[in-house]
Amino acid sequence: MNLVRAELERLSARRFVQLMLVLLVLAFAVTAATTLAGSHKPSVSELNSARAQAAEARRDLEATHQECLARQDGTLQSDTDRYFPSDCSDIDPIRQDRLPIAADFLPGVFSFAEQAEPLLYFLIAFLVLFGFLVGASYIGADLNSGGVVNLLLWRPRRLTVLATKLGTLLGTVLVLALLASLAYLGTFWVIGQTAGLPGRLDGDFWSSLGAVHGRGLVLVLLASALGFAIATLGRHTSAALGAFAAYAVVWELGARLVLEIVDARKSDLFMLSSHTGAWLNGGARFYDEQLCRGDNYGSYCEGFYTLPWLPALLVLLGLTGGLTAAAFAVFRRRDLI
Amino acid sequence: MSAVIEIEGLRKTFRSLRSGRRVAVDGFDLLVEAGQVHGFLGPNGSGKTTTLRALLGLVSADSGRMTVLGEPSPELLPRVAGQVGAIVESPQFFGNFTGYRTLRLLARAGGVPVSRVDEVLDLVGLHDRGDERVKGYSLGMKQRLAVASALLKDPRLLILDEPANGLDPAGIREMRDLMRSLAANGVTVLVSSHILGEIQLICDHVTIISRGRRVATGRVDEVLAGHDRHEFLVRVAEPERAVELLHAAELTAAVDGGALVVSGVSDPTAISRVLGEQGLWVGELTPLRPDLESVFLELTGAYEHPSVPRQVGDSSLPQGEAVIDLDRGVDA
Ligand SMILES: Nc1ncnc2c1ncn2[C@@H]1O[C@H](COP(=O)(O)OP(=O)(O)OP(=O)(O)O)[C@@H](O)[C@H]1O
Ligand SMILES: [Mg+2]
Fold this sequence. Notes:
The structure holds 2 protein chains of 2 kinds. By secondary structure, chain A is an all-alpha fold. Chain A has helices at 2-13, 15-37, 44-73, 112-144, 147-154, 158-195, 203-234, 237-261, 272-281, 309-333; strands at 284-287, 304-307.
């Protein structure tokens, strides 16, 4: 417990952590301020006209669909140059992800229900970066400045010391992420209530937002552990940064290109970014024209394949867990100079 | 007397891609008993710091047996860590913390009452500077802070790797007084240093290491006595005639400057008798006792060719010469 307290104090005293927190608050303040400045509470007439426009748009969609169907049946012949898809179900309003709603016709009005999820994605992206960098620099700087050696002279149990550091890091990042997302969503909720439109905040909305939030937090923790593990393995903060940059350039860009050239199938499955996206969104769909090549000519082939969230999570967990275990194993025996 | 530190046959080889294998410690033995103030001497790169690191579990030894306060190290080191204060090669501290906060963190991590922090800051003379940031400290102040961190646990065994590094003359003297008072309170001290005069003043025992091996160990006075060539400096009116007289009396003597150096004499009265009987009156008769510096340079071969720049690692290995070891007798 004492060790945890000491680690907490060290972590919070790190300049880098403080800088990242300031950045977080700044980004947060800027987004909130611009949103606030660009939004106003819609008047009753604005609302009514927006509702009317939304209803009109929905009717239009329905009419187009009907027209498409009629054209297919041959019951309708007209020489408009309007475009209709070959499969009318593509434009069936029932099958659309979302239908026009009033908020779409209220320019300059912030709608919490509409914007909460993209805002949350932005926050998660920031926190993932925060976790990775703080995780890496926390152990990296300590290994380099002799802080770990000093501590080991007091507590010559390497695994306990490293585990305490990792635990303190994950705990702190989790608490920070929770507080930040609460403050963040809370602020925008208030903006929605007072200077915009709350939107439809029903159970569906909250549960889907909660799911994204929960998945995001897991991602933040994984990124923190990953930064920590790579920096421990490489004895340096920059090891983690280098590994990340190298991975992004060599694998996500270079290997993707090579895989395309050699016509590899489902090359997206080899990319961590795909798995990250699949986990965060609860699954991802990728297109690969290779899937339609060669087999059963004539039969219908969409060329899409999905990556469900569970295998994606397992890959991310396996990678992070493996690297963390390796970091502990190496740290147990390593010469600390 | 019980052994506080025992090292037997310690070997440590560093391997790196660039420079290959480097044997840092090569079958080294060390015995420090309770209550000793034990000096640990050796040229640069001879393996002192590596030995201390291995002893404290910071580097893993290739082979050898070590115990600290009776517990095998590094396996059971955690059992006694609370009683061992150590600094190994000027420790680094987090620059943004004040000296006080640095020590408080360590005290907390080690379960030492925080009130002890003020005591040790006072002890090392940092009482008034404790609430300044460490990055603003001078070299000597950082060194004092390091010593304070080692004292924080109120240790039974204190291991100090070059504690005088960067200290001013007054600081060196304070360090000496501190070590003496600790020793008087029963603390066992193992201290490495290059300031041999200082070691000679503080330590009752020494171990000298050269190229990873022990070349001498024992009580300071006995190590010195073992290298005493029984030489005397003699001043007389006619040195040349005196040399002849001494040679006639089967003594070895040579003129050195304006004086004579007579060697291999166990009883100096022989010199004054031989010369006095021939009417040559001795004006000065000084025993030329070796000091730690001359013994060190002789044992480590570090000063054989004064005109050639000596390279790190050029020191001697223990040769046929006996290692003086009080506790084990003389081994070849
Ligand atoms: N991390 C390391 N990697 C490779 N070689 C090392 C390492 N640490 C020490 N050595 C080598 O081991 C030998 C002993 O070094 P050590 O630091 O123990 O010497 P020392 O006696 O403490 O010297 P000094 O008086 O200069 O402090 C040296 O040759 C050194 O180059
Ligand atoms: Mg050294």
